[in-house]
Amino acid sequence: MIPVAVVWLRLELGRRLRSLLVLGLLVAFAGATVLTALAGARRGDSAVDRLLAVTLPASASVLPNQSGFDWDAVRRLPGVAAVTTFPSYTELPVDEAPDDQITPFVPADTDAMATIERPVVLSGRLPDPVQADEAVVTAEFVRNVGKGVGDSVTLRLPTPEQSDTSIGARDTGGPQGPAVRMRIVGVIRSFWYADEVGGPGKLIPSPGLFTRYRANLLGDRAQVPLNGLVRLRDGEAGLARLQAALPGVDVVSRSETIQHTRNVIAFESACLAAFGLAAFLAAVVLIGQAVIRYGAAGATELNALVALGLTRRQGTHLSVIAPGLAALAGTIVAVVLAVAASSWMPFGAAAAREPNPGVDVDWLVLGAGFVLIPILVAVAAGASAWTGLTSPERLRPGRQSALVTAMTVLGLPVAVVVGARFALEPGRGRYRVPVRPALLGAVTGVLGVLAAFTFSAGVADAARNPARFGQNYQLMAIFGFDGHDFQPPRPVLSALTADPDVTGVTDLRMAAGRIGPLTVVTHSFDPVGNPVPLVLTEGRSPANGDEVVLAPTSARRLGAGVGDRVALTGDLGTRELIVTGVGFAVETSTRGYESGAWVTSDGYDVVFRGFKEHGSLLALREGADPEAVAARLRTTVGGGLLIFTPFVPRQFGEIRNVQVLPLVLGAFLALLAVGAVGHALIIAVRRRGHDLAVLRALGMTRGQCRLVVVTQASAITVLGLLAGVPLGMALGRILWRAAAGIMPLQYQPPTSPWTLILIAPLALLIAALLATGPGRHAGHCNLGQALRVLDRA
């Protein structure tokens, strides 16, 4: 058998080398795409855990926002493994960076980057903690600013007087203190020092900067408070003890942020894995038909050797050799390409948490692909050859579909009825054509396109509507801090309300309360004139002092929903409240909009004595320029008002990032549909040419033959539209609802009207174009040859 195999392989290489090369290239391209996607999904899904395992992550952010807070007492608490502090309200601009490039984190001690949040060094080294002129940056800073290891940048510090007045909520302009020339010594990454998706990057100075310029950062009177990060020996399990030891202090579990990032990455990885699956299905259709045709052609030639004693098993083995070797060569290339492409993975939120960026070898995925791809190709070629080497199946009458029967009864043209039969009936015997893959491919393609564009419509809606993230206000004002107002609040609020461009004002106080074991930043909902309404995902706003609205993450962690009762504890005592709604809080420099609570002014006064911050939310007239209104209000109210546009939630960048994969997935599924329908048309014309020959002999014209193929393509497409459009819209909304819950954001059912309008005519146009080639072949087929084939059958 081996000599025969060698001879047969030589013949195949001599006659079909080009076909085998094309097959190998198709396997290489498709295999590389699938393997890269699957390996990238696995790599991204594990990025957070791998980063946390090597960086001594913080367990909690402790935000007292109190000048003179005793951090040494925190260090002495049982279960505390490490503490690092940093000045709050620090925004240090870098001259070489765009205006939005700031340094929000200045380490105030040598524990930073050593015993807590010890970063992975991507290049260079960590800064010397005693050097005031050394800094490290994140990877996004290098990409955006173009400054990396060995380069220098200028950091602008405030004067001590500016720091003293900034805590009084005065707009002091840009920093007017020293310009410190900082040398970048490393590029780092930890979960705390990670880049946000779409963010500008970060520059982190050495702790030596704080030591040398302490007065510039804290003020002469040291009024700027120090906030901090705490690492607990038993992690999340010790958080309740830490919160109990720090009453009245906002203790934020880092697990909330970590879990959110895990959820976002899991969604991105699932989309990437789905993309890999779609690429695999497209490859099965596009490559599978080439392999099947190759195997069938080889079987036709091997039938000549059956008379000489070649068995069907031996013929099948021979037909597998050449395509199997081509597939093996293509798989080797695919593995090499997948390894090279791994440097682009992971992407999105996972890319900012990958501890080992660059080339990565996923032995499980690549090893499985290396084994399975050649086997699948060999099995497909062998099955095709086995069928070709089998004696023709006895002709049996086939069942006619109900639709074709109805069309016949209605007296529709013969060409239309025959085209519908080609689309819906597989035929019989050796001329049998699988119709289900084409129908399934058409449905899947339409479904994928509708789902992708429906999801994309949801992303576009969220991207242009900050209210989906709770921001139905355009400006924020601060005029009080740490229990002290720097201006009488009522005249300030009256002046804000009187501005012609201001349509709503909410008097806002914030304090750290506690519900059970959870620290909850509580906001007062106190409209002044027209309110700035809360953005709710369910329920209603609080109407009296016995009611509360919880933010989504806080509600989830408490296991509370609308109608439940919770006990809110503040510095004045505890009050039981009824949950009337779930809605978004205020995004701040230290807290996300997804956690917190809202109570009425009366409810706030019963539980809290003072406030951490006192200010207001301002809704503006549509079309008003927030910057112009802010400048006018500063002039109207005076120097004791800090007024600014709201903080941008990190979820804005994350939601835009997840828009890409569903669109690419939809494109691949559309490719699958085109391949499936095109393949069905070609195979139907080739295998059922005898049917067309009989009809031609009975008087069917070439134009009618072309109409048969066009009708077949149209029937498949229409059925794909009928099933795919509603399923695609439903799937798109399900995916968008899942993404809305992960972010979180206010869910609005997305619709893509232009997609709904255009998909039917575009799909039918594509079907008509696909039918052009097979239709021309059907109209010009050799009638005598087709009838001779029928006679032999």
TrEMBL record:
List the Pfam families: FtsX
User: Where in the numbering of this chain does the ABC3 transporter permease C-terminal domain appear?
Assistant: 664-778
Q: Does the keyword Thylakoid apply?
A: no
Which residue ranges are recorded for the region named Disordered?
153-176
Q: Give TM regions.
A: 20-41, 264-285, 322-344, 364-389, 401-424, 439-460, 660-685, 706-731, 751-771
The membrane-topology field of this record reads: Multi-pass membrane protein
Q: Which UniProt keywords apply?
A: Cell membrane, Membrane, Transmembrane, Transmembrane helix
Q: Which family does it belong to?
A: Belongs to the ABC-4 integral membrane protein family.
User: What name does the UniProt record give this protein?
Assistant: ABC3 transporter permease C-terminal domain-containing protein
